[in-house]
Amino acid sequence: MVLFLLYIKAELENVGSVTLKPDVNLCINVRNPLSDYEVREKVVMNPSQVLDQDEGAREPEHHLRLKWDGANKPSYAIVLTPDQVKTMLKKKGGNKKGGKGGDAANTRIPRDYTAQDSGEWIPLLAMDCRGLEPYGFFPMGGEFVITSSSSSSDGGGKQFDDGEIDLGEGDWADYDDEQDVPVSMSEIQFKWEAVG
Length: 196
Prior knowledge:
The protein is mostly beta strands. Helices cover 8% and strands 42% of the residues. The chain is built from two helices and 13 strands, in the order ββββββααβββββββ. Strands 5-6-8-1-13-12 form a six-stranded antiparallel β-sheet. A four-stranded antiparallel β-sheet has the order 7-2-10-11, with no helix packed on it. A three-stranded antiparallel β-sheet has the order 4-3-9, with no helix packed on it.
């Protein structure tokens, strides 16, 4: 089992948070870790849907399954919750890296991208992968909820969640009419990274 994290990096203007929805289709590229040429491009999966399995199947419940040419067993990926990632990192000794106790492991826990993260790589999603490696992410539109920064005391900004938010072009912009400010993301990038 290999832990892969999907990271985002962007410059934010008047954005309080960017949240990856848990129940939408995600489009990714995957490759066979044992072969340089075997890839599956633009595979669609949903982190909230566990695939049906045959009775007596040995694999744990998973969200993506495929079989490479000549393979005896299917390869699969499991989308992990933040608590499952913490447990996995503890098992892998994730708290030792960086020499700051739990700090290094905590930077690998998927979470929302916030205004304080602008310009930094932050993990949004974690997958336990067996027999496959994700290497591309393609926003299709509707995967994210963006909340504007709030200057009011209630702490809540305007939510942009119309199903049309598409970060695949590398930038996004809208207008928060409640606070009379533009809201935007630019230089949006995604990457997958293997952990330990």
